[in-house]
Amino acid sequence: MLSTLNHTSPCLSVVTKGALGASRNALAASLPRHFAGKASPSGGEWQTMDGCTAVCHVSYAMMETAYIYPITPSSPAAELAEQWSALGVKNVFGDIPKITQMQSEAGAAGALHGALAAGSLATTYTASQGLLLMVPNMYKIAGELLPCVMHVAARAVSGQALSIFGDHQDVMAVRQTGFAMIDADTVQECHDMALVSHLATLRARVPFVSFFDGFRLSHCIQKVDTLPYNQMRRMIDMKALNAHRARALNPTRPYVRGTNENPDVYFQQFEASNAFYDKTPQIVKEEMDRVGAVTGRHYDLFQWSGPKDAEAAIVILGSGGSVVEESLPYVNAQGKKVGVLKPRLYRPWSAEDFLKALPKSVKRIAVLDRTKEPGALGEPLYLDVASTIQESGRSNIKVIGGRWGLGQKEFTPKCVAAVADNLYAQYPKDHFSVGIEDDVTHRSLPLNDEINVSHPKTVECLIYGFGSDGTVGANKNATKIIGDNTDLFVQAYFAYSSQKSGGLTVSHLRFGPEPLKSYYSVSKADYVGCHNTTYIDMYRMTDHLKHNGTFCLNSPFTTVEEWNEHVPAGVRKALAEKNAKVFNVDAFKVSEKCGMGRMINVVMQAVFFKLANVMDFKECIALYKNTIRKSYGHRGEAVVQKNYEMIDEALDAITEIKVPADWKNLSDSMLRFEQNYHDALGNLAKEKSAINKPSFTENIQAPVALQRGDDIPVSAFANDELVGGKVPLGTAKVEKRGVALMIPIVDMDKCTQCNICSMSCPHACIRPFLLSQAEDDAKPSTFDSRKAKGGAEVAGLHYRIQVSPLDCTGCETCVNACPYDALRMEHLADFEDIESQTGSML
Amino acid sequence: MLSTLNHTSPCLSVVTKGALGASRNALAASLPRHFAGKASPSGGEWQTMDGCTAVCHVSYAMMETAYIYPITPSSPAAELAEQWSALGVKNVFGDIPKITQMQSEAGAAGALHGALAAGSLATTYTASQGLLLMVPNMYKIAGELLPCVMHVAARAVSGQALSIFGDHQDVMAVRQTGFAMIDADTVQECHDMALVSHLATLRARVPFVSFFDGFRLSHCIQKVDTLPYNQMRRMIDMKALNAHRARALNPTRPYVRGTNENPDVYFQQFEASNAFYDKTPQIVKEEMDRVGAVTGRHYDLFQWSGPKDAEAAIVILGSGGSVVEESLPYVNAQGKKVGVLKPRLYRPWSAEDFLKALPKSVKRIAVLDRTKEPGALGEPLYLDVASTIQESGRSNIKVIGGRWGLGQKEFTPKCVAAVADNLYAQYPKDHFSVGIEDDVTHRSLPLNDEINVSHPKTVECLIYGFGSDGTVGANKNATKIIGDNTDLFVQAYFAYSSQKSGGLTVSHLRFGPEPLKSYYSVSKADYVGCHNTTYIDMYRMTDHLKHNGTFCLNSPFTTVEEWNEHVPAGVRKALAEKNAKVFNVDAFKVSEKCGMGRMINVVMQAVFFKLANVMDFKECIALYKNTIRKSYGHRGEAVVQKNYEMIDEALDAITEIKVPADWKNLSDSMLRFEQNYHDALGNLAKEKSAINKPSFTENIQAPVALQRGDDIPVSAFANDELVGGKVPLGTAKVEKRGVALMIPIVDMDKCTQCNICSMSCPHACIRPFLLSQAEDDAKPSTFDSRKAKGGAEVAGLHYRIQVSPLDCTGCETCVNACPYDALRMEHLADFEDIESQTGSML
Predict the structure, then answer these.
(1) Which residues fall within 8 angstroms of residue B677, CB to CB, at 6 or more apart?
(2) N or C: which end of chain B has fewer CB within 10 A?
């Protein structure tokens, strides 16, 4: 089963395999890259990757088989493993793991159970409801003491609404199954804790859930020191592995499992596994020490960070622990003495190790849970800590509990400061929430303004893109180039709107001289890029620009005069007040000129390198060009040169907009999108719709659409109309996103009035209209109509096919469906055009 | 939707419906009966029924629809509901609820969710892994604040082994879902808490899990004061019900549910439900008060029972609370001051009400959990209590935790005494187990001899029956007759071996002047009945007989001389030492004489009435005869008279065995079944089988088979051979239960050597044998063989079909499969016959 090891990591194997055909680029993007940065302490490789890739790097190494049913946010790990397997990448034993996709997570867990009983090294990746479907089998796997690691990108569970985002509701729902649980606080720890889990489970025979925060860690790109496979191979306790294999259920060593037990013996048999759980913390400690010896990164079961004479402690799991750690120096500089105690091994819970790690001086503890169990006295981690303190007899310690980050609500330094303030309050609030405003049951802690606790040399960037325009890919690329070629630490996180293609994407990038622990959005950026002209009239991006920061717009408006005409006064005023350096680039013009249509990713990436000023610009462009040669070289020199040309054109196209001093004196007014909602509210009030009252649009829909949803207080939801996850109908007609870059225009000369376009539209936004003679007389001249066909029923009426331009997503389905080529896609320059097109029809 | 109410309970409706065709008897057995016992405080009806029926009585009343997938031990509730619905029984609204069986519990939960969203009063019944499959939908139902009650017969979850028996692993695995949770401590409370749940959920909008211990309550028959449906109807908060219906999702009131929420608003929306949970304890309190006002049974959220100046408290959920309550007077009589605090509303957990209910004098608390969460600091109830005490600042209280009753391990007064002793110990053991001997990790509390805490006038009976011989049905019947016709409180619990038909059944019956809280096995009985002759040579039933008790055997041995010859010396010695009254009845003779074959239920029931002396014998027989007339009257007077005749014959057939004084001087020796295992162990040791080492048979298989499995210590399982639920193969050959009343005998003159009988046997215990000439020469004379057919391969060999009599279950499959009628079923009188049949072949 073991073969000679002559490779160090799956990516190396792949890179040396040579031509990989059409999938090469997709693969290249998905696989970890190498870079010539500083040497890793483990003699391993620093690679710029996300948490899922880090987890896959380790789990792929240590498994023989995986049963998967990918679910967000764990999918990339599962899919990557499948991809590597298909490409023949080998695990540490020199074998190619077999990855099987099942019919559901329940099936994946069942197959996993069977594979483990048969003596395999088997794993799976899951999250949320997927993990819940595995619960019955988890009891079996744990009850049968089968070594195993389940990798969970921890995510919210669907209750009043679905959320694909990170919190700990799912993992906390399996804490009773008998699985050990270990968690990661950083992307690096996604790698390290996965490794500790795989090493420890073999020795402990207790199965592990290794969890890492969904999206915040699973999808966050950072520099990770990855351990080579030959190193990992040497760390495996072969005696324990052989013992696992010797216990395999197979025809040559038959025995019975899954028996029925009666009341006489069930309890005794259950208690016979105690010793395994008793030993697990010590085994995990030893494996952490061994990983520490190899990598230089030392971990404890409970990791204390903060003053040794701390008066107060915050106990927290997951990425929030990093945020607390990052924020405490600021908090303590205000005269407090607060430390953070991060449990890494959550189950088995070692009260002894917890108490050992907690300084004797601590008098108050705030336990922060990233889950909510309605009806419980407190959340799970709180109950564990409060009971541990109760047992310890240290009756001078006050323990309070709170909730943070549900459904990935932002947890930032100001939240940590609020928790610290509460700890020092005379009467601290207990069972609080932090990060929101609860103006109904008043559980929330008051929040002050955001605090910047990052290293002064850290550069933060915010880039607003249009889903599918290539912005996110370009930013991933840029982050990797910078990460792989400098000593800088990097962090890239991407927020997508739920509309996906055609929705808003916001890239949050950080580059700094020290490891980045800011697992939250960039709220004030050194560089703000807006890759979509219409956004300038939709979102207040300048709110997120630092003083003296750089603002770059992709638009056709290259002069101050054009800006005066097209850029809203409020935006210009804010830029002036912030003393911003302002640039414009007409990216579409460049890309179209270079024959790339509307794919502006190369253009905007070049512009970013030039303006964001993260690393030496010339070196950066050289590296970028080299990357392009690597990626597209096999398509021929012409393609490479076209890209080079586009980069040069892009750089030439950057125009600085010298901010006139008098912009400061402008008076603000509503953005077009704000106005849109303002008008819609007026209309709703007039309509008195029974299904969509203005309150929903005013209190929730509009702020969410305008990217101000974070500020919505609890009271907006605490009414009969909405509580329990109800949402009114008829909200789409208010939304009017206007995301289509092109919309269908009808040629009424060709239209046969068959209505097929209307029936084909997935959004029901292209429709036939019948006009009375009076209406036809009053229509705008551009609104071309014809006599309606259809006999007596429509006699005297006029007919036209018309799209609702602000609802259309530009998918072209109608154009393709029209049997008579009566439709064509056309750009509309701005809202005036739209109005002239549709007149009073909408 | 509401119709006039002119019925009081479903059973009344049914009873007045008249002829019900062939299913009448099954129905009659399943429906609650009425009796002329004392008036119920509620003006309701005292009925003798089990927990599932009590739950169904209430839930059927209060629902419009149920989605079910019956699972042990909740099945009777679901099946009864379906039966009532099929018979047209109406709920409190005068409608017939619709019951739908789904494809799995996941489907049942999904359909339930949909029905609730559509404004229905919907419910389900489940347990164990079934409940686990409902978890994803439970989050949805709770998140959407849909009023609902799930009735759960709490059961163990399959881990190292499957257990169908009661504990709280399943319900504790859903405590995080946002459901409220309420529990019953007695069969009466199964009824009362179900009612409180249904009333409270409508007002609270928080869904409820109403749970009751599997088997110990779900299958325990007691007298229950059932509330009439017209009373229940009046208790429903119609305003709340109408509000629920008004929130229904339907085409006339459309809205959206199940949306996707992003990090900006998910947390706030989740917190908007806080107020509902905050109000729930008060609502439940109010509904408990209203139920109390009607029934005279008053409940608290946390119910204290014990001295007001208690020094120590035991906190416990479920039927164990009743056992503690029953045992504490004895414990406190030894100089302790211990009380019991029983949480009824487990979620939402009201710390305030807990602390209010706990006497100020309490300094030590033992929290007893009926679940185990390996790797947790303590079990869930423990964590809740420890944290509550920690929060309260009452730092002079010591809280310890322990586990009881996993997989329905016996929890008896001696366990309560052990917990009390531990509470008073200088250094109490924490995180202990009670009820077993843990000689490996030493968590268990030491146990003394069993304590009898029942009322002195309570009569306890133990009856050993043969699965399918009618014993259990007869005992149910007897219990109902006594319960329905006397002021006595009754309790009947039935333990079945896993072999079901053909296995051992033990009926545990209690009759007493006060409500019975002994939710554990009868360990010392006033009356022990053995309905199967062979058991006298298998089990030490006399161990469970009280001094001066009555022992009755069904056997053909009607004289002291025959007893001397056939009844083991040890048994006779024990009877003499206990000064037992001993009786014999040849029940098979009576039943066969009356043309009832081997159905001895009527015979043994009559004998029980005569000998157990629970109520006036003559009245009892008259009532019994009346019951028979009611049950079989529709089959004609002849059938009735045959039964009457059988009763009279049975009473005449009772022979007292006057115990000779010298039986005391007999020396004990192994029973046949004990000898069997003794011999098997010797054989296994000689064989040195790789798959079944003697240790398993010695330490586990034999004690379990001999009904001594309760005494097996943890160490028997704590070895590599067995830990994690492994069981060796090849154990059936040791088992040799000998349960077949008749076995197949071959007529070798007719046998064609086709082997079809062998292939058809589900237990592989009838097989063809080939004998060499030497073997054939040495065979016993009864072992009839023929020249083997089959050509050269078997030339010179002899052939015979032979069953293994001790493995055969007497199912007759082989006899029916034989194409040539070569097999017939035949009685074998005893083990000697068997040996003569099989000779050295086995």
Answers:
(1) B697, B701, B702, B705, B706, B734
(2) N
